[in-house]
Structure prediction request, 103 residues.
Amino acid sequence: MTAQDATKARKNAKARREKRKTDPGESVAVRSDRGGATVSPGPRGTLIERLVRYWRGVWAETKRVSWPGKPELIAGTITSVVVLMVFASWLGGIDYILRKLFG
Prediction:
């Protein structure tokens, strides 16, 4: 590690500590000095605050999802039904053969 890399690492660590102090709403994992298991502090905020924060995150993530259009949805449905029919026929055939052999 060069001196320049060490300086960058110290600055990044300092920035993370400062962010942790200014943003108490987020739960942060704490790394042990021995490199063992991590310890996560308990949840922060009341139950209502945590639920609101959770659902806001869910809503924001839902907006980022790339939803399929109608043609992709139809193609995916047809593919799923065909694959399901093939496997059902295969399983039915195996069942028929085993019933004839052992029935």
Remarks:
- The helical segments are 3-22, 47-64, 70-102.
- The two ends are 73 Å apart (CA to CA).
- Residues 68-103 form one domain.
